[in-house]
């Protein structure tokens, strides 16, 4: 709350019901923030999902944009880069992009305007 930032950690998603629950929780937490919030998404445990899951990614990204999201940083691991690319493709389709980094510390610096 102090940083007006939502922190999201996405791991392995087993089915659409779990993904919808994730989206609902992210929206609920986002409602606690003010316009211009930032988002740190930790995708180090995320595995590329079937394309059907992209509608959920798009839903949450559209919701965040409607709430005036200002900056996004995505943390990914060096190997298995496909997971973060799925988030990238959807956000580019919506007209924005996030910075991709490999550590939480680097993401924090970007979102705090230090880098």
Automatic annotation (TrEMBL):
It comes from the Bacteria. The lineage of its organism: Bacteria, Pseudomonadati, Thermodesulfobacteriota, Desulfobacteria, Desulfobacterales. This is Uncharacterized protein.
